[in-house]
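Reminder to self: tokens first, then the designed residues, so the page reads top to bottom the way the pipeline ran.
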């Protein structure tokens, strides 16, 4: 009996399989709202629907940036070495801090900015909540990358997110150059779900947040996707934001430059897309990775 049968929810996106199967065409729209529903123009919405991502300059103003950069340093130093919300690099440095919007009033304020929340509501067609939030830190010389993946594949398999109705907003706190580990994107790949091979290990998140090996497409799949769509890159000054669809293939290389790269990463999920039991995981992941109660995790 499958997990989908146990939960009574149809699994339209099978993954973590024992053998490879063909890619699955996406069934949901990418954009759920209209030009009258928020600040994005019709052209911006059409571009997001076509490419699966959108870059918005000036999302966070110069008045907020120094405060946020100091807040980032404070959060990294404040959390205890054994706090699971602080994910560390193999060498010991901070890689990510999860649920910063619940630790910092300043970051919670960023979530509600007029340049952030209305866009999430427009793209997802109504009320949203924070499914996951984190600060990603990629220090100079030692920051390691993130292998190619679709976030939705993990959120579906390990968190029970049934539909592709979530969007991520990555806000640059430092300059994102082409050479300091900035995010690479496969435009248009959001229209296809790529099933992955390999069962989910117990407590997979304890290692996957440092180095992801399960839930990633095989090389042949990636070659075909890039041959078809190409690769774009998110570059821009501090304060700019990358909005991208939950199913968009993306990844980043390591940062061997002296120039650090830090981003606030906010994932908005529609309130009409509540999490069920994991489709391919043995148990639910912790709340700081996959929020299930919108009331306590910023229902917006």
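Designed residues (300 positions):
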């Amino acid at each position: 009996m499958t997990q989908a049968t146990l939960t009574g929810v149809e699994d339209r996106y099978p993954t973590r399989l024992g053998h490879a199967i063909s890619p699955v065409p996406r069934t949901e729209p990418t954009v759920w709202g209209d030009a009258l529903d928020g600040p994005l123009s019709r052209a911006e919405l059409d571009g997001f629907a076509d490419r699966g991502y959108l870059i918005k300059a000036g999302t966070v103003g110069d008045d907020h940036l120094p405060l946020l950069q100091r807040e980032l340093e404070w959060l990294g130093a404040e959390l205890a070495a054994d706090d699971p919300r602080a994910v560390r690099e193999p060498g010991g440095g901070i890689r990510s801090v999860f649920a910063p919007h619940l630790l910092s009033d300043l970051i919670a304020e960023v979530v509600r900015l007029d340049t952030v929340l209305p866009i999430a509501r427009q793209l997802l067609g109504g009320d949203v909540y924070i499914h996951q939030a984190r600060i990603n830190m990629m220090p100079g010389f030692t920051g390691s990358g993130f292998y190619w993946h679709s976030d939705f594949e993990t959120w579906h398999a390990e968190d029970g997110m049934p539909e592709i109705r979530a969007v991520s907003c990555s806000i640059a706190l430092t300059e994102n150059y082409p050479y300091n580990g900035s995010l690479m994107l496969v435009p248009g790949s959001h229209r296809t779900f790529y099933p992955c091979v390999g069962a989910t290990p117990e407590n997979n998140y304890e290692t996957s947040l440092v180095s992801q090996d399960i839930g990633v497409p095989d090389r042949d799949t990636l070659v075909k996707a890039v041959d078809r769509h190409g690769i774009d890159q998110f570059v821009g000054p501090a304060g700019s934001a990358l909005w991208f669809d939950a199913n968009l293939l993306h990844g980043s290389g390591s940062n061997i430059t002296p120039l650090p790269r830090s981003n606030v990463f906010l994932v908005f999920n529609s309130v009409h897309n509540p999490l069920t039991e994991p489709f391919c995981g043995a148990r639910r992941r912790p709340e700081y990775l996959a929020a299930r109660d919108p009331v306590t995790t910023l229902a917006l």
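Residues 32-252+272-289 form a domain with the Jelly Rolls fold (CATH 2.60.120.620).
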